[in-house]
UniProtKB/TrEMBL annotation, chains A, B, C, D:
Pfam families: GFO_IDH_MocA (PF01408), GFO_IDH_MocA_C3 (PF22725)
Species name: Clostridium magnum DSM 2767
Presence of the UniProt keyword Signal in the record: yes
Official protein name in the record: Scyllo-inositol 2-dehydrogenase
Keywords associated with the record: Oxidoreductase, Signal
Coiled coil: none
Sequence ranges assigned to domain GFO/IDH/MocA-like oxidoreductase in this UniProt record: 140-287
Limits of the Gfo/Idh/MocA-like oxidoreductase N-terminal domain: 4-131
UniProt lineage: Bacteria, Bacillati, Bacillota, Clostridia, Eubacteriales
Length: 392, 392, 392, 392
């Protein structure tokens, strides 16, 4: 089997998820398009890099990502760093002719995203952005139902991504609350997943009308390097620093194809954990998905008899997308890992087949354009065009 | 016990609900503030009026609502007609010094609503508009939690009212699809209930950004007088007539107090029946309600321990608002009737105590202003002020 | 319209439910088979009887139920007293030629139930026992699906009736905890509803293996006359009295037709309010019902495609049993009252048509036999025949 | 880090799950107690064994499990074969001084299970039986709530394990339907998981009253070697063979500590996929779990205020058992793999610490005794003692 040498940059929680996928993808997808060799991992200090290499099964480690990008034996660059280094790394990697997968959002800004997109296009490498949730089998099943016409013409889309890990004012001021590193707050971090769902399932977004809020203007300054999200609380004596990103985004959407919709994303919704949902109404049916119950897709078909119509809960399994490769019975259980395993499979397949994969840097760039339009609209109060259809 | 003589104008499904409430409210609320005497009912033909009187237990019947308004023995005028006659009847009733309850929306247009509001103010009668859903005990419990501070400061509101009875293009062209009678489509018919919830639970709405859609531009012309909603389907040979109202409304909301939100209302959502929901996030907790499961309120309190925080399903019963007067065990079951029984109790109590009741014509008028802003915004694409705070 | 003069014996919460049904049934079912005239109500003291007459709209009141049974103008005797008086009243009513509806369970003991059954048979009156939950439209829809073969041959039944109003040791020692009045505890009070469901939907029960528990052996003695269920808590100084009935019943069931099942009933299940559920598996599908979400029936049809099979949530409305007579849109909301309104309709129809109605005293007697077998089995530990097929 | 050399016997779906766990456990639990070296895998043919070694990352492969048991470099024997070889392999492995984990049920019969148990006791090795579901974090959280007294004294337990993969009469006659290989049907395959939950959460089972059913007496004979569960359907021309195991088990349970309960297990429940549920009522609260929604535990605490009591949905995450080692946000998603990863961690920890782990062969043996009592009771109709308290 073909082997692909991986260089993984970043050693936070995403390193765990990606390493798990590299180690196990061929156990699920058999025969696998290629096998991952976990070659080198990079983290900020030599101690943490060494520890990450041991933990995640990498042969080598470094504190300088350039060591990886410049290593001729590396085939794939996996970017799992905070957002402020995505562009620099990706552009260097593209120039070095590496295949690239980057965590989302693609970049802090649209201009960064455009440079990244231009770089991969001119170098001709395979590129992917890790909006993994669309690889949940139930989401792929929604795509199948829509594509085959089972719910007719799509009329509207209603998406949410609600979490609560930043609802507590004492949850720390991690890099995710700093504009210079993250680019934006809930917008780039989680709204982008909803936008990816909307584009995947309905089509390109043409215009938005948005409003943004920052609910908690300052947070306790965090000890260096940690990215514990909201689960580590500070006491009141910790000095506070300024939050300069959004906590909440609410926006209306017009799709190119005439469908309409709304999306809300916030990390301040007590009781919602990873509440990535969508509801789609079509002329012949409806679909509802909630990632918190990710084994299930709910679907209503208009053509069912009047005495037996309703939302049906379909648990995904061997009869559904990717199902033959996963577990033999529905509800044995899709976890976060499986979304990354599928993502890795599709990425490797694209590399081996030399085809495009989606979502890629073009998608990541367009999503950045949409985020720009959202941020713009929330300032001006005007419907704002995304200009996605000007790309290419 | 004080008796109030009722004149009920209109004999459709609302007549059933209101008559049920008049007949049974004192069985639940004991002692009742007053007892209803079902005096006269009005419908369009003498046969249907006679039948309605028998069916709903009225002593007399007529085809001319003026007979009722002019009857000195009538205390209460109950307006349950299509929207195009609300204003004329209510204004006459106010002039005649009657207490008035009107079905929602208050009127077809803001100017009608304003005239109605002015009329009741100048005559000094008690007035109510029948947004009954806020009287669901679980909604009243949400109000209680918010008022007492259990979820902290309200940050945002997310409302939906989704139904599917008009999703089928063969569902008939009832008056609800005709602008000259209904005033608007889903906007007046159901979005107003969500708006009422938002105002009741969060506060006054200051501005909106909206979009509207008409999905099904023509429908089969209905045989006279029928108001069977979507349950009676036509065959393809029935001639079709034009729909000139909205099927869908999606809008962002800014409240006077700084909270934000979104609302969606459509009667074209396959699989949703009476999906009137709201989710409210506060600084100390969250609330979720779905009328399809109306015995339940879901609430998450931030102050619960980190190892046991989550949405809790509270079934309303004797320990909750209105509970002592309803059924002795939670989940014996609140139905549509109970919302009207409670509404009648609160209305009669206001009449007897000579106090205001909410929602009243002022609320109905302000909701009309908000609907105007929604319709305006969906045309201009601009954030539009509601001007509610200019009333009075 | 034919009028039926009602004598209602008992003025507790059931009086409210029955009176509501008498007052409003013809508003829903039109034309109604007959109209109820609320003639006389009976309660234990003259004050409470007078108050009940006013509250529930009865023309007369008495403290002696014999006044009602002996009143030649009374057509229908409605028995809504504690269980210890059902037999005496029903037998006298049957001898007086009255039509009879009795609250459940039919009696304290099988011998009482048999006497009651014999009495109505020999007098030829119409008789009904008020297991109202099977009249929930969603339950009637389950019956329809089963009868038409939509889920194939029924293999098994799994029922629960869980409440929590007696879970608190400080909830009072009402008559429901005293064997001489109630006959039994959770068994007669709520397990009988599950048994009624099982017999209605699957068939006659042949044998049982059971176990019973009394979790709370003594409770605070209640002030006279009150029947507030668990919602009124006593303080610790109130003297306690002995509970001599069961708190929990768990039993396995063999049906005459070969199906099997299990039923659990307890009023000590914290967090369950009126959790009357059943799950039925057939060769071609499954059905699930939970009364706490009584607008819904969940059904899975095997014949749905492998890529779209699952439990479907059907909200009952105009397209389902009794639906044309109830509310025009699903999920407007079925409450407890509607189950009693439907019950009254079916009872009156039987009276007018001179036909049998189900469940009747024969059913009530057979359920008493089954309860006897459960109690016997829980003592002996042996599978115990119900002898239901020896009746008649 | 200590390394443990693994010999995995069996290459079906369990080989995937176990291999995934071996490859990734140290990524989650850091520092891990030991690292797994995937040394040798065994399957029935040399081709399939070779393929399995490549797929699951094993260095060597064989068709003779004795090669593995006799290999002095192997530390751990992992038995993932059909049930008929568990005993022979485990006994040989114990004699060879290997640490042993066996898939469930431990054996086909109690006598086999006893021999296995005796063998590991006399050899002093660490032993575990792979009832992995109790390692779902939400189940571990249930255990924590019970242990700390949060729901008071446990009164009863209600378990189900419902699947539908064998509901279709055309699903193939795999070894799971043959008594000589499987030992029993749904009883050993899935009821044992419910029994494991009951013993883990409530305590030892003293007596049972049971009934068993075989719904589908013959099934299409399957082509050799395949174990595709119900997802591969045969056409009607395939010759059929006899099913000699149970399809359904329903039993009442008395625990040693006085609690009672019921359990149902069937693989013929259309619409249920992996519906492993339990509901536990205690004197101070209740717990409900459904593995199909395995990120969630539902819990009701009696001590919550009367106006806010109800079942709460707690999504497990970093604040719950094993949570620090899994994903950083609740509802990112626990899948089947995570249950095996945790199982492997606890097993390795026991090996390194030389302590016992649970469930082990003693538990597996006692569960076999309970299954014997169930089978016996379903034949005799009598309550049957399990004799678990005679073990040791």
């Amino acid at each position: 089997m073909k082997k692909l040498n991986i260089g993984l940059i970043g050693a936070g929680f995403m390193a765990k998820a990606h390493s798990m996928a590299y180690a196990t993808m061929p156990m699920f997808f058999h025969p696998a398009p290629a096998e991952a060799v976990r070659r080198t991992i990079c983290d900020v200090t030599i101690e943490s890099a060494k520890e990450a290499a041991e933990r995640y099964g990498f042969e080598k480690y470094t504190t300088d990502w350039r060591d990886i990008v410049n290593d001729p034996e590396i085939d794939v660059i996996d970017i799992a760093t905070p957002n402020d280094s995505h562009a620099e790394i990706a552009i260097a990697a593209a120039k070095a002719g590496k295949q690239i997968i980057s965590e989302k959002p693609l970049a802090r800004t649209t201009s960064e995203a455009k440079e990244m997109y231009d770089a991969v296009i001119s170098s001709g490498v395979i590129h992917m952005v890790a909006f993994n949730y669309r690889r949940t089998p139930a989401v792929a099943l929604a795509k199948k139902y829509i594509s085959e016409g089972s719910i007719g013409k799509v009329l509207n889309f209603r998406g949410t991504y609600l979490q609560d890990w930043s609802a507590d004012p004492n949850s720390p001021l991690s890099w995710r609350f700093k504009k210079d590193i993250a680019g934006s707050g809930a917008l780039g971090d989680i709204a982008t997943h909803s936008i990816d769902m909307a584009r995947y399932l309905v089509g390109e977004i043409a215009e938005v009308s948005a409003l943004s809020q920052t609910y908690i203007p300052e947070r306790p300054i965090q000890s260096s390097g940690s990215d514990k999200l909201g689960t580590v609380k500070s006491n009141d004596n910790v000095p506070k620093g300024k939050v300069d990103v959004d906590d909440e985004n609410l926006f209306l959407v017009k799709f190119e194809n005439g469908a309409v919709g709304s999306i809300e994303a916030t990390r301040n919704a007590w009781g919602r954990n990873n509440f990535l949902t969508f509801e789609i109404h079509g002329t012949l049916g409806s679909i509802y998905f909630d990632y918190e119950k990710r084994d299930e897709l709910q679907v209503c078909f208009a053509k069912d008899g009047d005495d037996r119509r309703g939302f049906k809960t379909v648990f995904t399994g061997p009869n559904h997308p990717y199902g033959e490769s996963l577990w033999p019975i529905p509800a044995l259980g899709i976890g976060y890992g499986e979304t990354k395993i599928i993502e890795t499979y599709d990425f490797f397949k694209a590399i081996v087949d030399k085809t495009e994969v989606s979502p890629n840097f073009e998608d990541g760039y367009k999503i950045a354009l949409i985020c720009d339009a959202i941020a713009e609209s929330s300032k001006t109060g005007l419907w704002t065009k995304t200009n996605c259809n000007n790309v290419k």
